[in-house]
């Protein structure tokens, strides 16, 4: 998927076990905090589109292979620290609150869902993404955060019934 031109600004950072970390907005040399929202956060919308495409691709694989694999994803936005680390085996990595919260969104989310914090949901709503409020989730080191599940693009949901992500049993959360 990352080879598709529409995902040109998304970079795979690493995989650890079954966790795949990707990022966007790392190469924007023209960043200006006063940019219009749609310009400033276009890379976040691209990352969200990538996540939805991953989910759709896995659904198609499941249909063809008679499996029921589900992804659990977390998306967040904000500043990060990144660089090459390791003397013997150098590799690029990233750290910081933004990365930690994204990781917590993944780990406290539900299989088959994409979970975000409130600020990320508000930004992505500007790009016509639709969310369902999950509620407060206890996040280690952050306290209770208001979280949302991404339902999809408004245009894709108009003609199809929307299944609530809250219909299933709750997922245990971590405490702070």
Automatic annotation (TrEMBL):
The gene is Adcy3. GO terms for biological process: adenylate cyclase-activating G protein-coupled receptor signaling pathway; cAMP biosynthetic process; intracellular signal transduction. This is adenylate cyclase. It comes from Nephila pilipes (Giant wood spider). The keyword Transmembrane applies. It is a multi-pass membrane protein. Keywords: ATP-binding, cAMP biosynthesis, Lyase, Magnesium, Membrane, Metal-binding, Nucleotide-binding, Transmembrane, Transmembrane helix. Its cofactor is Mg(2+). It catalyses: ATP = 3',5'-cyclic AMP + diphosphate.
């Amino acid at each position: 998927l990352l080879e598709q031109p529409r995902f040109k600004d998304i970079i795979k950072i690493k995989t650890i076990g079954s966790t795949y970390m990707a990022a966007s907005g790392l190469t924007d040399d023209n960043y200006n905090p006063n940019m219009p929202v749609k310009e400033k956060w276009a890379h976040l919308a691209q990352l969200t589109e990538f996540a939805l495409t991953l989910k759709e691709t896995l659904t198609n694989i499941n249909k063809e292979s008679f499996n029921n694999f589900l992804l659990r994803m977390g998306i967040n936005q904000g500043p990060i620290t990144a660089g090459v680390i390791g003397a013997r085996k150098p590799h690029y990595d990233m750290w910081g609150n933004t990365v930690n919260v994204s990781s917590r969104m993944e780990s406290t989310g539900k299989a088959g869902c994409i979970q975000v914090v409130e600020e990320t949901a508000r930004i992505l709503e500007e790009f016509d993404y639709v969310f369902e409020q999950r509620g407060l989730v206890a996040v280690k080191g952050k306290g209770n955060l208001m979280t949302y599940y991404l339902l999809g693009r408004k245009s894709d949901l108009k003609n199809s019934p929307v299944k609530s992500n809250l219909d299933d049993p709750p997922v245990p959360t971590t405490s702070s």
